[in-house]
Design goal:
With 499 residues, this protein is of the alpha+beta class. The protein folds into three domains: 237 residues, Reverse transcriptase/Diguanylate cyclase domain (Alpha-Beta Plaits, 2-Layer Sandwich); 124 residues, Dna Ligase, domain 1, CATH 3.30.1490; 87 residues, no CATH class. It is built from 14 helices and 19 strands. The strands form five sheets. It has a six-stranded antiparallel β-barrel. The longest helix has 21 residues. The radius of gyration is 36 Å and the shape is elongated.
Length: 499
């Protein structure tokens, strides 16, 4: 498919935006001016001001002589870039590839996009009519190359849609300014009487390079398609993206849900075919009034299941404000990963955070109350029980496995609490212990399990752990610190509780 590019020239970008905010300025001559070495130089003006003979670069004092009714507003450097950025985001509804073209233009890669609006003519007509309805005076053009589209938009009297392969003919009658040349090169061409591109288009490149510089040759070759010129989009396109153009503006929650489900089905079908799943996705909607919004979801495990992803978006659909109607939905899988092999998981019976069911439940809980309310602990590289669990992110993969060769309590105290215990003989579990003033008679016990102290971190005694059950059927994790000492009975501790 041949490449097609569109150039949009905002003839009075800054002044149009001023009139949009202050409608009473329409039809009046006014300019923007910025200070320069003690003078105020005009940086932007309206068509009415131009009729008086006012031009960019003129001082305000000179302009007021020829236009006494001229209104002057303070200009701010960089305001045009801010406006162009907003307009570029607006144009994303027509193509995902939009580049800023300072100081007053946009470049669009419309390859394969125009048929969605009924062809290139209808494509441009819709852009022009909608931007004019907002209040902008624009001139768009479509051609095979960026340079040709740029030149036709700014310099051609007619024929703003250049047929495929006809960009050379479209450039021939245009002035040299259509090639995006600097002012000194344009002045030199004018002094030599070269007022049209046709006057020098067939000159050898060596002659043009010697007389006008290599930039002149580069711009000419780019416009003719002899030199590749790349478009650098403002927003990098996401490989896995689905778009839904609405036949009529959408305003109801039911219609939004239907559109979302359709997008998810198409996206998940693509991901499933490539063995991928969504880790992060964003739904963006564009309203007919020019405004847009988005909602984002994340998953703990890669997922390409439509019902699960729909539930995550469903939680946040209340934030969608359709206004007068939504005309376009775009669903992007911003982060993808290979999906797990569920067939093998059926045999391994893997549970915990690695289970898809648990991961999907956590996704829904996080979507409602936030990820900060969910805590996950992974095993640390420690022998001491209270140091082993460490807080971790939900999506972080464990670096080691939990120890399963020995039983561990469901609840471990942050710090062991001292207890009073009575044991018949050394290395035997206690027959009873007192904790917080309550006496517990031990009817069964298992142990000991010796855990050495981490001597490289701190000095101290080892621990001998016992699993003890009292007369009420409650099970505790007790330990004796160090070796048995008949003279000191205060070296027993309670460290955890079994279910």
């Amino acid at each position: 498919m041949p490449k097609r590019f569109a150039a949009i020239w905002f003839r009075y970008l800054l002044t149009d935006q001023k009139a949009i905010r202050q409608p009473d300025l329409k039809g009046k001559p006014y300019v923007f001016a910025e200070p320069d070495h003690g003078r105020l130089l005009i940086t932007a003006l309206t068509a009415e001001a131009r009729k008086y003979g006012v031009v960019e670069g003129m001082t305000v004092a000179d302009a007021r002589i020829i236009a006494p009714e001229l209104l002057v507003f303070d200009g701010k450097p960089g305001r045009n870039l801010k406006l162009l950025t907003g307009l570029a985001e607006w144009c994303l509804r027509y193509t995902p590839l939009v580049q800023l073209d300072p100081p007053d233009g946009l470049l669009l890669d419309v390859t394969g996009c125009t048929h969605l609006k009924g062809g290139e003519k209808a494509f441009l007509q819709e852009i022009v009519s909608r931007l004019k309805a907002i209040g902008y005076d624009i001139r768009p053009a479509i051609a095979d190359t960026i340079g040709a589209a740029w030149g036709v938009a700014r310099c051609a009297a007619a024929g703003l849609i250049v047929p495929e392969g006809m960009h050379r003919n479209a450039l021939m009658p245009l002035p040299p300014a259509a090639l995006r040349l600097p002012a000194d090169a344009l002045l030199k061409l004018r002094n030599l009487g070269l007022h049209q591109i046709s006057s020098f288009i067939y000159m050898p490149d060596s002659v043009l390079r010697r007389r006008f510089g290599k930039n002149m040759v580069l711009r000419l070759q780019q416009a003719l398609g002899q030199e590749v010129e790349y478009l650098f989009p403002m927003k990098e396109p996401v490989p896995y993206t689905e778009r839904l153009d609405c036949l009529e503006p959408v305003t109801t929650r039911t219609a939004i849900e239907i559109g979302l489900n359709d997008l998810l089905e198409r996206l998940c079908k693509r991901l499933y075919g490539e063995g991928l799943g969504v880790r992060s996705a964003m739904l963006t909607w564009y309203r007919i009034d020019g405004k847009n919004g988005s909602i984002t979801i994340g998953t703990n495990h890669a997922s390409n299941r439509v019902p699960h992803l729909f539930k995550l978006f469903f939680i946040k659909l209340d934030t969608v404000a359709p206004g007068m109607g939504i005309e376009l939905f775009i669903l992007e899988a911003r982060q993808t990963e290979p999906v797990s092999d569920k067939q093998n998981e059926l045999w391994s019976a893997k549970g915990g955070a690695e289970s898809d069911d648990v991961a999907e439940l956590l996704d829904r809980v996080a979507g409602r109350i936030g990820t900060a309310t969910i805590h996950r602990y992974l095993p640390g590289e420690h022998y001491w029980p209270e140091r082993t669990p460490r807080p971790a992110e939900l999506r972080k993969a464990p670096e080691s496995e939990w120890r399963t060769d020995k039983p561990r309590p469901m609840q471990i105290l942050d710090q062991p609490e001292p207890i009073e215990a009575m044991a018949l003989t050394p290395d035997y579990p206690p027959k009873l212990f007192i904790w917080k003033g309550e006496q517990h008679i031990i009817v069964g016990a298992d142990g000991p399990e010796r855990i050495e102290r981490e001597w490289w971190l701190e000095p101290g005694e080892h621990r001998d752990y016992y699993i003890a059950e009292d007369e009420a059927g409650r099970r505790y994790w007790l330990f004796r610190s160090g070796h048995y000492n008949a003279e000191n009975n205060q070296h027993w501790y309670l460290h955890g509780f079994f279910a």
